[in-house]
Amino acid sequence: MYHQALTHKSFSQQQGNGAQSNERLEFLGDAVLGAVVADYLCTIFPDKTEGELTEIRAQVVKRDNLNRIALEMGIHELLIHETDSDLPSTSMAGNAFEALIGALYIDRGYKRTCKGIIHALVPTYIHPEEMGNWKKNAKSRILEWSQREKCAVQFRSKKQVTEDGKELFDVVVIVAGKVMGSATATSKKAAEFDAAHQALEKLEAKE
């Protein structure tokens, strides 16, 4: 299974012998990593809002960061692939990193996977002491993007009260007249964090 986690689809397609690529394990590993990081952040940052935790988790599991971790771990040297280049792309290494987490989860279960990620990866590659100091949240970044691209960005919010008296805030982010992100949370700030993060992901995917 760990062999499969390191097998890029280019190799399995080239071989044509039923060899499985790492795509399904990557899908699983992505979900497991997100859950482990969320679990860990809730433990070390008990006072942060859900929006702030969402922002920090997004920074940890974003593609560029996972690619960097994979390269520092040397995963790119272990990849099995049939690409034109002798050196696989950084994204292939990052994808394999997630696939290895998926394989570890199947082999060892969530508890051991969680322990392995926190004890083996966090001190060396993620630096938790820096997480809480990321001041540029998604809202700040999207407003900077607005100024840079000279494109209008609006945050619209609405408060609602549930039948049991709980206050919720609905926030939408509108970019150039189009809704690019929406979120509901128990605080306006948290909803803005989440909606802005959604919008940023869509905008960055277009670049």
List keywords for this structure.
2 domains; 207 residues; Double Stranded RNA Binding Domain; alpha+beta; Ribonuclease iii, N-terminal Endonuclease Domain, Chain A; 3 strands; 3-stranded antiparallel β-sheet
Look at the structure and name the CATH superfamily of the largest domain: Ribonuclease III domain
CATH fold-type name of the largest domain = Ribonuclease iii, N-terminal Endonuclease Domain, Chain A
Major beta-sheet overview: 3 strands, antiparallel
Structural class: alpha+beta
Distance between the termini: 35 Å
**How many helices?**
10
Helix-residue proportion: 55-70%
Strand order of the largest sheet: 1-2-3
Strand tally: 3
Uncertain regions spanning at least 5 consecutive residues: none
Order of helices and strands: HHHHHHHHHEEEH
Output mean pLDDT: 82
Strand content: 5-15%
Rg measurement, Å: 20 Å
Protein model, in words:
This protein is an alpha+beta fold and 207 residues long. The chain folds into 2 domains: 2-131, Ribonuclease III domain (Ribonuclease iii, N-terminal Endonuclease Domain, Chain A); 138-206, Double Stranded RNA Binding Domain (2-Layer Sandwich). It has helices spanning 2-5, 9-15, 23-44, 50-61, 63-73, 90-108, 110-126, 128-131, 138-149, 188-206, and strands spanning 153-161, 167-175, 178-185. A hairpin with a 2-residue loop joins β2 and β3 (178-185). α5 (63-73) packs across α6 (90-108).
Strands, helices and their partners?
Blueprint: H1 2-5, H2 9-15, H3 23-44, H4 50-61, H5 63-73, H6 90-108, H7 110-126, H8 128-131, H9 138-149, E1 153-161, E2 167-175, E3 178-185, H10 188-206
Antiparallel strand pairs: 1-2, 2-3
